[in-house]
């Protein structure tokens, strides 16, 4: 059985709540952001294992939207995953470590936040060893 990332993300986003799923590309999802703003298309960006502060999008900007992060472990003892709003402090969204997971199934961590950092804006993802991630959102 093969794993389809796009189908998984569509399903994960639909289960987050109030996220209508469409069937068009890029990543076929439409969603409403907080404050009533509309995000017409959601993009994804892959983050390899052991990356530090990988920016989501080409440059990142205030207002970029991070819907969530798909975490893809490759061992049962993966490293941690954290996000940053610009140069803010890292926020651990998965601590990782021995015993942190029991299967190698990817899992989705919903975020649902806009970038507000004015200094070096944009969302950044840091991954530990033995795992990769996919940032999902609307990035500049």
Integer average pLDDT: 81
- Tell me the major beta sheet: 4 strands, antiparallel
In the sheet with the most strands, the strands line up as 3-10-5-8
Helix proportion range:
under 10%
Structural class: mainly beta
Radius of gyration from the alpha-carbon trace, in angstroms: 15 Å
Topology as a string of helices (H) and strands (E): HEEEEEEEEEE
Number of helices: 1
Tell me the β content. Answer: 35-45%
What is the first-to-last residue Cα distance?
Answer: 35 Å
Task: Tally the structural domains.
Answer: 1
Strands, total number: 10
Name the shape in a single word.
globular
Uncertain regions: pLDDT < 50 for 5+ in a row? 16-38
Describe the structure.
It contains one helix and ten strands; from the N terminus they run αββββββββββ. It has one helix at 5-16; strands at residues 31-32, 38-39, 43-47, 54-55, 65-73, 81-85, 91-94, 107-114, 123-127, 131-138. 28% of the residues are buried. The protein has a four-stranded antiparallel sheet with strand order 3-10-5-8, covered by helices on one side. A hairpin with a 5-residue loop joins β1 and β2 (38-39). With 140 residues, it is mainly β. It is 9% helix and 36% strand. It has one domain (5-138).
